[in-house]
Amino acid sequence: MSQGFLYSALIFLACAVLFVPIFQKLGLGSVLGYLLGGIVIGPWGFGFITNVEDILHFSEFGIVLFLFLIGLELEPKRLWSLRVPIFGLGSLQVLLTTTVFAIGASLLGWSWQISLLAGMGFALSSTAIALQVLKERNTLQSKAGNSAFSILLFQDIAVIPMIAVLPLLALSSNVVDPLAVGDPKWLAVIKLIGIFVVVIFVGRMATRPVLQFVAKTRLREIFTAFALLLIVGMSALMQAVGLSMGLGAFVAGVLLADSEYRHALETDIEPFKGLLLGLFFISVGMSIDVAAVRENPAFIAGLVAAIMVAKTVINYGLGRAFGLGRGATPHFSLVLAQVGEFAFVLFASAKAVGVLDAKTSAPLVAATALSMLMSPLTLAAFDKWLAPRLEKKSKPDADMIENTHPDVIIAGFGRFGQIIGRLLYANGIRATVLDHEPDQIDLLRKFGFKVYYGDATREDLLLSAGARDAKILVVAIDDPDASTKLIDLARKEFSHLKIYARARNVAHVYQLIERGVDAFERETFEASLALGRRVLQGLGWPAHPTWIAANTFRDHNNQILRDMSKMRSNQEDLVSYSKQARADLEKMFEREKQRRENAQAGWD
Asked: Which of 153, 498, 567, 589 shows the greatest Cβ crowding within 10 Å of its Cβ?
């Protein structure tokens, strides 16, 4: 192993360890950390690494692994359900964006060939950045996430015809069609169909028996090796007919999405994907041509701004046209606002066949890389400054509440509060219900519930809800911070109210105990206890002993929580008391068992 390779690996790992945690801590995401780290260690920074092209080509395999893992999460049925956004929304996005940028480039005085090429390149978005951002924000499975993924998938497919038309745009005559490679067009099409048949056959029929055979060896490293062999093989087959390696890996993942080895494959591939994808982002940062930017900074900055603004506007219009909500559309638009990594491939191929010269290529590549760098920054700025204001604007004003002097006020009418409300309504008890989710309120009103929109932590809203006359306040809010804020307000301004609260977790229980609420229930505790009782009965216990065991456990657990809330600042005492309490509970159950054996059987 060469010293240069070890040196490069050392620099890469140091960059990842130093930069990424800092930017994640600042809420800017890992992608920005990698990109800026690449600038610092690259040829235009400290110059620790200069062989950027080699690293970029190698690190692109991280995108291949990433698309394989995405494919594993999409069963063929779900992929079929996305056919409309993939081919409808995706094709419209590519066509509209290409047209807008081609017209804009022609206004700059570029030839129609270069204008069309720039339009096609700038229409693409970064699969790696967009999917990473969606995953970090946990929105990949949402409607906006599915729409963004559909566009990205169509763009990956669209790269192929884009590369195929490059010879038609070529300024020189000595060019080769990258799809045909000397073969007639009909033969190239037959090759393409044949490769797809092979991929589907291997993925559905041949792969599972081999995976089963490899799994039986119980050699983890062999299973991992076969997983990598599968991905590389599928990618190579696709690349053989001019398709992208990422598309091949994605198809392989989809074909294995419903297999019993899906989770094992995810576990084995994830570390390789993470490292290579990080290396890819670092290499993108290193590839930014600072000399081209320095030569004409105003033009490059204006080009990047125009690209991101135009793509955001186009994406926003398409998102609204395809039924995305007002709240989700801005984030969806910004996620796809940058130029993608395949633009590098497109511009490099264009340069190789003579469509671009070095002077024209430099600003296009620099704008592509800088847009990828700016994307995490714009998303972070949006999350911090614009998203809260848009969310506030999109919410309606608080409802005017008819003060009917209720006995009970219920704050929060989700899955927890609804059960309480239904029990009260069924028994003819008047209750005023407050909730802060407009969509939830509209749905509940259709079912006949009298629910009012508003922030229950506001004193004026509580007052108009009848807090002066009510007897009980039920705090069923999902957010622990909002819950404790409401309880503090009620204790201060409406001290006569009895407070019954929903507890999210043990830490929230401690806060409720401190505030002296009249009663609290952990949202999953009773359901878990009821199921535990069923388990004991399934093991042959009679009904009466299981009822006693569950009640004993509940009383003991509640007492432990109250005791532990007083000593939670001392970790050592807390652990010691917890162990002692567990031993006491076991002794208590042992005494109960002996008493039951000596006594007559209870009811069953």
From this structure: 153
- Return the structure tokens found at 53: 């092209």
List CB contacts of 345: < 8 A, sequence separation 6 or more: 159, 163
Same fold, 51-390 and 408-598: no
CATH number for the domain whose boundaries are 408-598: 3.40.50.720
**CA 75 and chain centroid, separation:** 18
DSSP string computed for 49-107: ---HHHHHHHHTHHHHHHHHHHHHT--HHHHHHTHHIIIIIHHHHHHHHHHHHHHHHHH
The SS3 call for residue 586 is helix
- Write out pLDDT tens, residues 232-272: 887 787 777 666 676 777 777 877 777 777 777 777 787 77
For the chain, the structural domain boundaries read 51-390, 408-598
pLDDT in tens, 380-426: 888 777 766 665 555 544 445 555 678 899 998 888 888 888 888 87
Burial (Cβ within 10 Å: 0-12, 13-18, ≥19) of residue 178: middle
d(CA 176, CA 352): 10
3-state secondary structure of 501: strand
Closest CA to 378 of 315, 342, 333: 333
Domain spanning 51-390: CATH 1.20.1530.20:
yes
